[in-house]
Design brief:
mainly alpha; 5 helices; 47% helix; disordered C terminus; mitochondrion; structural constituent of ribosome; MRP-L47_sf
């Protein structure tokens, strides 16, 4: 049976390992690429995003933020494994608080997306009952019905006869208003 290889104890004889700075596994470490940050470094972080702030974000922004949170939780999990292995005696409470804030942000993202989903479902119910909306995909989604001018008796509290219409259907100001505007320009 062949002998097992022996470790090289002399540092001058160690093989130099070159890794790419863009290697994917560096994503499991912080920017300094250290296994365990100091408690001060671990304590330097922001707060969780509130649901109110997340409601104003686009789908793409929420998607990016979700994966930034996943990456941060992977870094924290890697650091926790190193803490258990090395037993330095510090950093557990700071890491726990940081992880809780990241989870709160993720919970807020889920909450905002759930609200959007329910709003979409309600909009679909309203669209199904509206004859001007066609969501079948066979034509335009919105087909406004033509407005019959005989059916409209008033507009903004004014009788229809007070409002002159052009041939294109655009509503113009009554003549008295035009005369007032011309009079103001002359002054």
């Amino acid at each position: 049976m062949p002998a097992l290889p022996q470790p090289v104890r002399d540092p001058s004889r160690h093989t130099q390992i070159v890794t790419s700075p863009d290697h994917g596994l560096w994503g499991f470490f912080n920017q300094e690429k250290t296994a365990i940050p100091t408690p001060e470094e671990d304590y330097k972080h922001g707060r969780a995003w509130s649901v109110e702030e997340l409601r104003h974000k686009s789908w793409e922004d929420l998607h990016k933020l979700w994966w930034a949170c996943v990456r941060e939780r992977n870094i924290l999990a890697t650091q926790q494994i190193e803490r258990e292995r090395l037993k330095p005696g510090y950093g557990e409470s700071e890491a726990y608080m940081r992880d809780r804030l990241v989870r709160d942000t993720q919970r807020g993202i889920k909450h905002a997306l759930t609200e959007r989903y329910y709003a979409w479902q309600e909009a679909l119910k309203v669209a199904d009952s509206d004859p001007e909306i066609d969501l079948s995909g066979g034509g335009p989604a919105y087909n406004p019905q033509t407005l019959d001018t005989d059916e409209v008796a008033t507009r903004d509290g004014h009788p229809q006869s007070d409002i002159s219409k052009t041939t294109s259907g655009n509503i113009q100001q009554p003549e008295t208003s035009k005369q007032s505007a011309v009079h103001r320009q002359e002054l």
